[in-house]
Amino acid sequence: MASVLESGWLYLITHFSEFQLASLGSFFLHESVFFLSGLPFIFLERAGYLSKYKIQSKNNTLAAQEKCVVSLLLYHLSVNLPLMILSYPVFRFMGMRSTLPLPSWKVVLLQILFYFILEDFVFYWGHRILHMKWLYKHVHSVHHEYATPFGLTSEYAHPAEILFLGFATIVGPAITGPHLLTLWLWMVLRVLETVEAHCGYHFPWCLSNLFPLYGGADFHDYHHRLLYTKSGNYSSTFVYMDWIFGTDKGYRKLKALKNSGAEAGDKQM
Fold it and tell me: Which Gene Ontology BP terms does the record give (predicted)?
């Protein structure tokens, strides 16, 4: 497996420059993972498949979904792509490399874990700031146009928010100066996580059912349903920051009521 990966990586660094891989390669990888993981949820919502797992009964209109897709393509080309190009010198200065040998899986896993923990901490506070009245009205309200989120709405946001909260994603790699392969893996996992959190479905196989500290779709869907002053659930990946600072109390109360109602129904049966 390692030899195959190294052979593939050798092909990439032989045929493309580091700048091409780090900027254009990262952009195309992001677009592929994002749209391939997010578009199926539009199909599920339109077709009504797996509706028993849908968190909200309300559906988005086709026009609303089309608006999201068109806006995303515009944002990605006008904001994300230039940002990836301009950030290359910064990552290079911070120690990013693309040469062989590839980092060990132990190093990769430790760095990815560090990125998730740091990103969640930074994102939590940045997200709370965006829920202040002025910032919410002029910036964050764009993201909350979709009270019933679907996968692609995860990156539907004001350009200023993309830059502001995007810092939470890149600060970890900027500190450690990872191998480009590690950076790509982090980007893929982060995209899949945020698409899942906005997908609007709570499946039996969701990570939140296996790992109590993981937020997931049910946790974040609550954030979109409520008014911005009462929503809470500001974390991106985990739930402990909201628990520590008491910003998940409404969500916990709702879960407790649902669970007690389900238990009462089981007893009557």
Answer: lipid biosynthetic process
Per-residue pLDDT of the chain (269 residues; tens, 9 = 90+): 678 999 999 999 999 999 999 999 999 999 999 999 999 999 999 999 999 999 999 999 999 999 999 999 999 999 999 999 999 999 999 999 999 999 999 999 999 999 999 999 999 999 999 999 999 999 999 999 999 999 999 999 999 999 999 999 999 999 999 999 999 999 999 999 999 999 999 999 999 999 999 999 999 999 999 877 778 999 999 999 999 999 999 999 998 998 876 544 544 54
CA distances from 252 to 44, 71, 209, 229, 249 (A): 28, 34, 15, 17, 5
Residue 46 · residue 54 · CB < 8 Å: no
Give, as one character, the DSSP assignment of residue 103: P
| Residue 29: closest CA among 43, 45, 16, 14 | 16
